[in-house]
Each structure stands twice: as C-alpha cells, then as structure tokens.
Amino acid sequence: MKSNSKNSSDLEKTLMQFVRACVESAVKNMPMPLTPEINLLNDFRGCFVTLKKLGNLRGCIGMLEPQMPLKKAIPEMAEAAALRDPRFPRVTPDELEELQIELSILTLPRRVNSIDEVMPGRDGIIVSYRGRRGCYLPQVAVETGWSAEKFVMNCAREKAGIDRRDVEEGNATLEIFQADIFEEKK
C-alpha cells in the first residue's frame, strides 16, 4: 500500500502473507490458512488477486462488488487466480517461488458521465453495454501509460467487446472505482 507508516507496512506484510498462503494452499490442494486477526478482513469490499511471473500476468481474478467479507473473498479470489483464470493454465507448485502477488481492495464503483471524469492511475474502470462488461484495475493505466481515453476504449473493446461508438455516443455505462493496492516486498 502506498504509505510510509509502520502500521500500514505491518498490515501489508500480514495481508500479503495471508494471500500467498491462500495461493499456495490452493495450488498444493491443501486446506486454506487461518485468517489473521485484522479488522479490515471483516469489511465487505470488492477485491482482486493478481499473479505475475517474471513481470508478466499469470492470473487475475476478483469481484467488483462486495458479496462477502474480505476474509472469505480473498481466499476465493486467490484460488481462482491460481487455478481458474481461463486465460492461463493452472499455476503449478514449481511456479510458486517465481510468483509476485498483488491484492487490490476496491471502493464501491460509481457511475460517471464521460471519459473526462476518469483519472488514470487513481481510477479503475468498468465499461458495460447490453450485458457485456469489462474492467481494468487502476494500476493497468499506470503500467501501460495509457491516457484516460485509451484506458476506457481498450477496456471496452478488449475486455467487453463493446464498440468504440457505443462509448463515444454515451450508450455504454462507465463506472469508476479506486483501490488500495498491496504488494509483496521481496
């Protein structure tokens, strides 16, 4: 998490140990670890678990809207990112050492009226139209260097199959959210 205080670095370390233990338990088909005593884990928030190997995406699964407390959502998303991301084969035990793990804990999405309201680096984006929906986490814009327009249009086209015109003409719904991003420190 982007903060220098000791408490937040302790929180990040404990959270990331928990997320890694969840990923490892899923990959090794072992029982999930005990949940650490952190008040935040009782909150109902959306979250994503992102796995990277040598800097490349290896799995990313999450839930945008809160459906359960984080203490239940994080193990489910960790397992899904490791074993059920349809873009990748299952993570193997041999890969665990090479994984970099990231946890994004989301705010509630809110609707915006135009791309001008999207701030790359601060906001994640959800684009939806006629039953199709795509999402990018806030860090995607930072990692790619995309402008707000490119961020939204790529999400619409690549993640949801929504035509550019439907976004430009206001037919598609745009929502933004923010995220507290936690990363392993190695």
How would you describe what is shown here?
This protein is of the alpha+beta class and 186 residues long. The protein folds into two domains: 6-106, Glycoprotein, Type 4 Pilin, CATH 3.30.700; 110-178, Hypothetical protein ph0010, domain 2 (Dna Ligase, domain 1). It is built from five helices and eight strands; from the N terminus they run αββαββββαααββ. The strands form two sheets. A four-stranded antiparallel sheet has the order 2-1-3-8, covered by helices on one side. A four-stranded antiparallel sheet has the order 4-7-5-6. The longest helix has 22 residues, at 6-27. The model is unreliable at 1-6 (pLDDT under 50).
Arithmetic mean pLDDT: 95
Could you please say which CATH topology of the largest domain applies here? Glycoprotein, Type 4 Pilin
- General form: globular
Low-confidence runs: 1-6
> Which H/E pattern describes the elements?
HEEHEEEEHHHEE
User: In this structure, how is the largest beta sheet organized?
Assistant: 4 strands, antiparallel
Number of domains: 2
So what's the oligomer here? single chain
- CATH superfamily of the largest domain, called what? Hypothetical protein ph0010, domain 1
Q: State the CATH architecture of the largest domain.
A: 2-Layer Sandwich
Helix content: 25-40%
Q: What separation lies between the terminal Cα atoms?
A: 14 Å
